[in-house]
Amino acid sequence: MILAANFKTNHTRASTINYILQLNTFMNENSIDDSVIVFPPSTALDAFESSKLQLGVQNAYPIEKGAYTGEIGLEQIEEFGLNTILIGHSERRHILNETQEEIAHKFNFFQSKNFKIIYCVGEPLSIYEKGFGDVLKYINKQFEGIDTEYENLIIAYEPVWAIGTGKVAKTDDIKRIHSQIKNITTRPILYGGSVNKNNIKDILSLKDVDGVLVGSASLNVNDFCEMLNISKEISK
Ligand code: PGA
After folding, report:
1. Percent of the chain beyond pLDDT 90?
2. The predicted structure's pLDDT at residue 177
């Protein structure tokens, strides 16, 4: 299983250090074999990685360095020896208005640098309400310009209406969408959208779910560790 924690615009540099230390200790003491990825804010990036715990950037500009005020590029990421990035997250698509073209460009840039890419797709509520066919069409468009067989790719299916709302997609819907995405790619597929310690067991037990991408419920390190424990129990 793959468990990823997306802090978004939460946690400081100081609280991230404490979080990572606690998480690392927990993973070692409990022999956690799952692959764990943490996405802190850019101000808290550092060379924290261990063999099992990876750190990634939530976003970056597809450039080595240059005049892109407010952005970070490859040079700033590589300073920490990091090579994992989240691309296509719904908040970047819908709040920051990134287009599919820009997202594909970013994807291609970081693919050319051999980054591990967690690539997010997912439909807004208005599309969900139209039915399964429309959801699939919408998601297919989010794969335009994306090399779906890239060897360092992990997909995250995150329905927009389930993110940060406490509304998890129905298990049948998750199964159906994941099995359709499996027709597009052989890479692992995570589910994201209001995953927490109470529902993670049901979600990870579903066919074609290879892990989870957790936002709000990952902010508390004890809760995230509890989720790792649940995942370990399932894998037995
Ligand atoms: P959430 O966020 O767990 O708070 O719904 C998930 C995500 O945006 O990746």
Report:
1. 94
2. 97
